[in-house]
Prior knowledge:
The chain is an alpha+beta fold. The chain is built from 3 helices and 8 strands.
Amino acid sequence: MNDASPVSHALWCPHVSVACVVADGDRFLIVEEEVNGRLVYNQPAGHLDDGESLVTAAARETLEETGWTVVPEHLLGVHQWRSTEHGEGVLRFSFAARAVAHDPARPLDVGIRRALWLTREEIAALGDRLRSPMVLMSIDAWLSGQRHPLSLLHSLLAEDRYP
């Protein structure tokens, strides 16, 4: 399409989401949540807010959904997927994060039933109760040693600028 031709289709805009793989030995932090009347399991994950960096969003979502303060240390991967929940495209940035503190009294986001620590085998056994195939993809990336530096992500937002 050249610049002079009219646009013949609507602008496509995928949902941008973030997720954290948080490990403690052989266990991973997982959330049990109710989505459309169904209990599903996922990493702590959610949507990127306007004006927020990907790394900040990943840490925020983990705190809101689990009560755990984490520090994202590596990018595990970027996954593109069409959601079976809403049928729209999703672009998910998955991070490896280190847990630093837990506030068990912190209220969890609406819909989150609980946070729990499960092994990869226990997570795989959940089968179609996993919210998406990206749950195991992210864990398997972590287990295989896949780690990319956060410096791959470039943000020009004020929160990420240094004097």
